[in-house]
Amino acid sequence: DCPGKEGTGGRKRNLTLLRSKLYMGQRRRTEPVVESTTGDHGNLRRSQSDRTEYSQKLQEKMAPQVVSSTPATLLQEDEEEEEEVSRRMMARRVKIIAELMQTEKDYISDLDLCIKEVIQPLRDKQIARFDVDGLFSNIELVHQLSAKLLSLLEEATTDVEPPMQIIGEVFLQIKGPLEDTYKIYCYHHDDAHTMLEYYEKDEELKQHLRDCVQSLK
């Protein structure tokens, strides 16, 4: 408090000590500190290089997750899923078309047998009491129309890539003849069934039918 050399020297020492404390305080604020609760060692300081290395390792671990969730990756996964669905649908469509054509082939084969082994032999016998055309109606026209349908289906699928096979157009093309032919067949179906029941009561006519069935077997 008293002026003089001693007072001036004391103020200088105090100023030097204050500068030293300020410098140490700035170092504490700039250095990273990690508190440790192990034992009674108090606080442990981690160097800046250790902290940088830790950050790099953390980023490496997180990197795969970040990449897998990017919009580009999600878009690619969606496109692959859509392609897989399209492939399954196309494979199913190809299978359905193949089954349709095989069913038509089997149907035509049955009609062939019926005409060759039943209708034609009964006509050749020229049985007076047996109305062959009344019993089988226009089944021969049905056979011709089915053969035409199969031919159109084969034309639409042979040497044609599955995505380019247009099947609906075939049925639209043959729609009119199908209606006209089956309209007649269905109209006479009940009468033909009644006629067959009557023929089966006649032993002679019934035997002719048995011969035809045996020929089919």
Set out the fold topology.
Blueprint lengths: L4 H26 L2 E3 L7 E3 L2 H21 L2 H55 L6 H5 L2 H19 L10 H20 L1 H11 L3 H14 L1
Antiparallel strand pairs: 1-2
Helix pairs in contact: 3-5, 3-8, 5-6
Overall description:
It is a single chain. This protein has a domain of 143 residues: Dbl homology (DH) domain (Dbl Homology Domain, Chain A, Up-down Bundle). α5 packs antiparallel against α6. It is mainly α and 217 residues long. Helix content is 79%, strand content 3%. It is built from eight helices and two strands; from the N terminus they run αββααααααα.
Key features?
217 residues; mainly alpha; Dbl Homology Domain, Chain A; two-stranded antiparallel sheet; 8 helices; 2 strands; rod-shaped
In short:
With 217 residues, this protein is an all-alpha fold. The protein is built from 8 helices and 2 strands.
Residues in helices, as a percent range: over 70%
Query: Strand order across the biggest sheet?
Result: 1-2
Number of helices: 8
What order do the SSEs take from the amino end to the carboxyl end, as H and E?
Answer: HEEHHHHHHH
Portion of residues in beta strands equals: under 5%
Q: Please identify which CATH superfamily of the domain at 73-215 we are dealing with.
A: Dbl homology (DH) domain
Which stretches of 5+ consecutive residues score pLDDT under 50? 1-5, 30-45
Structural class of the helices, strands and pairings?
mainly alpha
Shape: rod-shaped
Radius of gyration: 49 Å
Return the CATH architecture of the domain at 73-215: Up-down Bundle
Question: Taking all residues together, what is the mean pLDDT?
Answer: 80
How many strands, which pairing sense, and closed or not: the largest β-sheet? Answer: 2 strands, antiparallel
CATH topology of the domain at 73-215: Dbl Homology Domain, Chain A
Tally of extended strands? 2
CATH class of the domain at 73-215: Mainly Alpha
Terminal residue distance: 138 Å
